[in-house]
Amino acid sequence: MLKDFYKGKKVLLTGDTGFKGSWLAIWLVNLGAEVYGYALAPDNVEGNYSACKVDTMIHHVDGDIRDGQKLKEYFKKVKPDIAFHLAAQPLVIDSYSDPVYNFDVNVMGTVHFLEAVRTSVSTKAAVVITTDKCYQNNEWIWGYKEGDHLGWKDPYSASKACAELVTASYINSFFKNSHCSIATVRAGNVIGGG
After folding, report:
1. How many CB atoms are closer than 10 A to CB 76?
2. Residues 21/86, Cβ–Cβ less than 8 Å
3. Which of 14, 88, 147, 167 is 20 to 30 A from 103 (CA-CA)?
4. What is the strand order of the sheet 10-14 is part of?
């Protein structure tokens, strides 16, 4: 069923050079999608993007998620059917050493992605990937539910909660009864090759 759905679809990924983005790119290519990536150049030759030679499987352009105009232009050029937003500052510890960069990438990067989707006439569905760290950490032994409180004490978690709020705002302000459906996905700690 997924192969039937994705076959021949143009799918744009932000953050395709990262861990999750590179794996999603490989998966989508195997499902028959035409994949376009927009991300910083890979910074690790041992990472999945480089190790699996993802650059030979997809169309990729180096770009910073904080450059909203360049991202919009890439959307206009590609005309994606579907878009996934995975570009992020992904580490809690790094959010302490450079909180401004953390919020700029994780919050304003999400705004730039949603603006690009909003102005795209071709995009019919978009998914914003955040994290389970967006929830207020109550040290529960069970998983969090979508209705649980957002936010926490560290800059990373707060930035991801903000990305969720930004997305909810865009859904309610711009995407109700629109050409495009928007969702968020809150991934937990992910492990694997690369």
Report:
1. 13
2. yes
3. 147
4. 59-62, 34-39, 10-14, 82-85, 125-131, 181-187
CA distance 194 to 191: 9
Q: What is the pTM of this model?
A: 0.95
Single-letter amino acid code for the residue at 124:
K
Q: Give the span between the Cα atoms of 169 and 25, in whole angstroms.
A: 28
DSSP strand E in 103-159: where? 125-131
As beta bridge partners, residue 183 has: 127
Question: What is the torsional sign of CA 179, 174, 71, 100?
Answer: negative
User: CA 31 to CA 11: how far, in whole Å?
Assistant: 11
Question: Could you tell me if 162 and 103 are in contact, meaning their C-beta atoms sit under 8 angstroms apart?
Answer: yes
Give, in order, the Cα–Cα distances in Å from 68 to each of 63, 72, 166.
Answer: 10, 6, 15
Residue 113: predicted pLDDT: 98
Q: Where are the alpha helices (DSSP H) in 79-175?
A: 92-97, 99-103, 109-118, 155-170
Helix (H) or strand (E) holding 4: helix 2-6
Provide the phi-psi class of 138: left if phi over 0, else alpha when psi is between -120 and 50, else beta: alpha
